[in-house]
Amino acid sequence: MLDIKNLHFRYSRRSPMVLDGVDLELRPGEIGIVLGKNGSGKTTLFKTIIGIHKPESGTLKFDGTDLLKLNRRQRAEITAYVPQRIQFGAMTVYDTVLSGRISRFGLNPGKHDRFAVEQILDDMRLNDLASRNVEKLSGGEQQKVAIARALAQEPRVLIFDEPTGNLDLANEQLILSEARRLAAEKMISILISLHDLNQALALGDRFFFMKEGRIRYAGGPEMVTESVIREIFDADVRMIDADGSRIIVPVQNGAHGD
Ligand code: ADP
Predict the structure, then answer these.
(1) 20 to 30 Å CA-CA from 108: which of 22, 116, 144, 239?
(2) Rounded to two decimals, what is the model's pTM?
């Protein structure tokens, strides 16, 4: 289980805490959605979990292992990250995905590494693109390659920072259903930040509402309510029941009368 307690981080000694006592628990196979306004600290939290930022205080554990004591390579075997903006070198899709395994093979990939990459390309339906230059692919295809590369690390915790930002509807659905499959089949804990509250409701097992560097509310779908959303986003919404599913719709200012 990913277990974060009282995590603090700031970008410099003179600036305010960007993570101001974050607590978060996520079990194997669970999808946790982090929700919060721009600037609430989501990306900073993710980068602290994967080891880009070093927290000032607090604990960060996975199955009892202190992640803060691991070196970069060991850390990469537990946590993988798909950033908001993906940057690739001029490499083939195959080599890009293989590069995700560097922490596992060191200098030269072996048979096992190639087999693992082929399996992932298969799962992600990227076979036909394997020899293409990744820089020449569409945004949606690149997003899939970035996920494949993260999966090649064989992480226990997979973190997506706004994965659906630049995707069309079909690719958006593909990525979200892939996340669901990975959590269920490989028992990976997945942490995702999403802007779309309805996507979040459809996908999440756990919800973490973040404001000013803290998780203000954490819980299952029942935690997602009009009043929590109003408090976290300073925006008015209504929950509507549609054939047993809840749909969140924004309320225009002045449109809700009494
Ligand atoms: P979110 O992902 O929720 O939009 P971020 O984690 O990106 O939030 O940002 C949280 C706060 O940290 C913001 O106030 C932002 O300006 C600040 N911040 C982010 N990155 C840096 C940085 N590299 N240096 C200084 N401040 C930063």
Answers:
(1) 144
(2) 0.92
